[in-house]
Amino acid sequence: MSLNGKARLLIVDQSLRDMVGHHFEYDLAVGDSAAEHGLSASVLAHASFKDLTLFGDIPATPWFTQTYYSVDRSRSVQLARRLLQKLPISLRAPLIRVASSVLGRLRAREGATSQAKTAPLPVFGAELGRYLDVQGFGSQDHVLIHTINMSELHSAMAAFANVEGGPMLHVVLRRDADEPGIRSGPWGGAPGAFERLAAAPALARRVAFYTDSAGLARQYHEMAPDLLFRVLPVPYPVPADHPVGRSRQAGPLRLTYVGDARVEKGYDHLPQLMSELGETLIDGRTARLVAQSNAAMSLEDDVIARARDTLKRYPTTQVELLTQVLAVDEFNTLLSDADIVILPYDAQNYRNRSSGILVQAIAAGKPVVIPSRTWLSDTAPAGTNVQFDTPKQLGQAVATAIRSFDALSEEAARNAPAWRAFHNGSNLVGILKNALEMAGRDT
Hints:
Blueprint: E1 7-13, H1 23-34, E2 39-46, E3 60-64, H2 75-85, H3 89-110, H4 115-118, H5 124-135, E4 142-145, H6 150-159, E5 168-172, H7 189-198, H8 201-204, E6 207-211, H9 214-223, E7 229-231, E8 253-257, H10 270-277, E9 287-292, H11 301-312, E10 319-322, H12 328-337, E11 340-342, H13 356-363, E12 368-371, H14 375-379, E13 385-388, H15 394-403, H16 405-422, H17 425-442
Parallel strand pairs: 1-2, 1-4, 2-3, 4-5, 5-6, 6-7, 8-9, 8-11, 9-10, 11-12, 12-13
Helix pairs in contact: 1-17, 3-11, 5-6, 6-7, 10-15, 13-16
């Protein structure tokens, strides 16, 4: 219990270091909704997080020493990354390309080693446990871990295996089970973590698992038939001052790519899109492309840099690139000003994984261009979207969306209220509270 007598909701975000990605928005949406359910919210972030005032009245504590992304990297790799980050991308990209090739050959030569199974577990579970002990979290409190990899999951299961009467742990599994390291990997991947849980009855009563798509829930249930995997909404802070649906500005249609520039999100397909339609529909008169183009350093540097350089050759009347990290208000304005949102995502990666960008686009009443045979195509309401089967068909899908804009926009605006009503922090917190109540009845 907190000092004011309320049960607590701790939002664990070990990777929250800055405004990159959707971590901050997720945390804010959940935290802002806690009070209406009688909970006192706080955020536990990475030790380097400094923008504590961004959460307003919600306390935020810098704490974790590892992020979701760095936990499985050796110290030498982490040092190399820090050094590379100091270089301009023109120098960094070729070095990363060479390093990736070398590492790939080494891993292929070594194959699956037994070393990974005996390596020390990440510090995630121990660090979280220390904080909960110091703050006196009890059986009526909640801990939401909305982003976790398999090594961290094993770490948490080991740290809390013998804890009696601790808080309810709500663990969200958001990665496709067919991705590397999920079904198998260090310490046995997800199945190994579920085995740890089965061997710790005290912990099993205090853990609830979730996904944010029905497809992911099915995948994980196949691995652990005795466990329940609830499906959560994809929350985001609803902007109060942006109208739903058409806020059509004078001039060409704004085709907008929203989110970080990443290969799995199809940023590298945008040059081909402009090559196909740059002299016809995306000519700066009928339509223009606005692309959020900031990217964290990664093995994709070379691909993203080449795509960005190609797009820079177009006049700003045709292509506008936003290369800086956007604050929440700036992101909301970008989405509000969009006429059509383009999501050229990799279909394999997003077969079962959700997309916060799609949720926000439909909730804002925007037509979308999306890949078929994915969670996006399964979820987007009929009449709000145009789908493509392969990246080569992206240009054709965008052309259809431009020509059908009026009908698509009308249907998107009609569906927006229902999406806003479901994908919000209040619904998510309500599901968490229900899981604790169910656990109490089962004990």
